[in-house]
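Request: Mind sharing a record?
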Amino acid sequence: MPIDTDVALSATPTVRDASWTERDVILYHLGLGAGVDSLDPAELRWVYEKDLRVLPTFAMVAGQGVSAGAVTQAGLSLPGIDIDLRRILHGGQSVTVHAPIPISGSATVSSRISDVWDKGKAAVIVLEQSAVDADGNPLWTSAMQIWARGEGGFGGDAGPHVSNAVPERDADKTLVSPTSTQQALVYRLSADMNPLHADPELAKTAGFDRPILHGLASYGVVCKAVVDGVLGGDPTRVRSLSVRFAGTLYPGETIETEVWRDGDTLTLLATCPERDGQPVLTHATMEIR
């Protein structure tokens, strides 16, 4: 059978070691558009080693940047999942931060399939990664939602319902994040070297006008915008960030993020104004400290 949930959920986690330096952190932030105004102290704290801060979304690329050297990117380990990988989509992402991510450091990262949901026409595979430091202290837990088109209908649980609704009032804050035309070329140096984000001809064969920005880059851009615009530039106030990827963004376009606050929960909606408000990130919430 294409999906054996018993095998998938009981498989032994895969484990890898990850290490990074301040250069990896700085390059990651540059890939999100940080430092455009190099005289702004609020921007320098993301791209200059003096008083350097680390966004929690750096967890998505930790151990995969320039300090890792010329290593082959590991493929997906999906035991019990026998599907066509060409038909999968990165549908959603979350990260929960248990402790501030150090500027330079190392971690042991364990990966496992934590859930498999039956959505009828598609299956959703949740790939969870947990990172601990050298003393075994938790650093972060992330969950990637992989949508496998045409693989639903196996009689499994449909999974939790997550509302896409936003409050019926004006947003408390609207944050504007321009991207640069070369942003995908910079971001790909931190992890995902997929030529879809660099090669114009390949992008056209995939149905795009030109190379697209990484979904995880949009995820990081929105996180930075909220940290700067709502949390006073303090990334340690972010407890978690969960989103679904709703649309592509071309480098050079803008991400506009609306923020509604209810206590320690922020509801977010990220859209592209150049395309009449087309959604980029939806079902988005940030829990803060």
Remarks:
- The chain has two domains: 5-149, 173-288.
